[in-house]
Amino acid sequence: MESADHAGCPFLDPTGADLHTEAAGLRDRGPATPVRLPGGVRAWSVTRRDTIKFLVSDRRVSRDAAAHWPALRDVPRNWQLDVWVRTDSAFNAHGREHRRLRALIATAFTPRRTEELRPRVQEIVDRLITDLHIVETGQPVDLRAAFARKVPTEVICDLFGVPPHMRARSLHVIDAALHTAADPDQATADYRELRACMGELVAHRRAHPGPDMTSDLIAARDGDGHLTETQLVDTCILMIGAGSDTTVNLILNSVHALLIHPDQHTRLRRASIDWNDVVEETLRLEGPIAHMPLRYAVADIELGEGVTIRRGDAIIIGFGAAGRDPAVHADPDVFDPARADKEHLAFGHGPHYCLGAPLARMEADIALRALFAHFPDLTLAHPERALPRRESFIANGLRELPVLLRTDTS
After folding, report:
1. 179 φ, ψ to 5°?
2. What is d(CA 255, CA 180) in angstroms, rounded to the nearest whole number?
3. Hey, what domains does the chain have and what are their CATH numbers?
4. Which of 29, 228, 254, 276 is deepest in the core (most CB within 10 A)?
5. Minimal CA–CA distance to 358: which of 349, 370, 347?
6. Is the pTM of this model over 0.85?
7. Which InterPro entries match (predicted)?
8. How many whole angstroms separate alpha carbon 160 and alpha carbon 12?
9. Least reliable range by pLDDT among 31-45, 177-191, 276-290
């Protein structure tokens, strides 16, 4: 039987330079295969769709490192993945505690409350489109900074009551948490700054409560003690981070896919496919989260093919790889919004399924429709250049997307 301390296991590239090729190689090694994470920490990498669905739904798999990962005591406090392991929120809870903490935030993402956000999302998109119209013809613009990043971040900051003077700092520290190639000292500094920033948000909302989710969580904390102060801060870290970066990547990956596949844009114009097809195919092909750390085996789990994950072993789930599993999809690396089966696990699966998935889909739909309606001749500014990617094996996204909004004749 293999074990997670297998001497020949590869490093998971912390820069995420070639996520899909790396995932395909890991998938070929078995239902789970040992890898080394930053700092030499060992974990099982899981990239096959069926194995992922099995493990993340199994009660023998936990997100609670303190309770179920004995090796945590040997992990240095300046580890690059501390924010993913040592925070105390629904993200890292298991069983009854997870259900309790999740219930406190689920009210913000009911179908009714999500739909109530539609006018605000449209308002943000319309304002950003107006700003883009000011850009001169032939002048490149970074669509990530000018558009894709602003839509979901403004929505989630509104939802959690982040005041205007704190927004730029909040988003900067969230970005830093996803930089898995950072050196340990920088990662430690980023983590401290992230906690300090979210702590200041809590202090601000405690002094100035309003109709926002942070104020609601503070009321739960101060009223009946349903949250510790640490859980309060860490829940803000979880929700503001998860509610912004994933949708940024979804919007930008969708735009990029259409720009490098102009035939699919033509099909959109002819209504042979629709925007839902584009969004779901992008989620399948370029899921905004590549790998999600970490989970832990509560008991030995046999996966077949001679692989057993032992109790206490860590597991890193390749959600982004599931959509490209050739056992599930024909031509899995081809962008085809017309394909009948666009199944993916981009928003996770099982008890930890992303609460904000409907909101992310709505934001992407509104943003993409407006962008291509106003700028139908949108093109890459430098089609001959490789685009810089986020240095992360967690986030699957571009650092920038320089485009030309219109041609000289449009």
Report:
1. -85, 85
2. 25
3. 19-404 (1.10.630.10)
4. 254
5. 347
6. yes
7. Cyt_P450 (IPR001128), Cyt_P450_B (IPR002397), Cyt_P450_CS (IPR017972), Cyt_P450_sf (IPR036396)
8. 34
9. 177-191
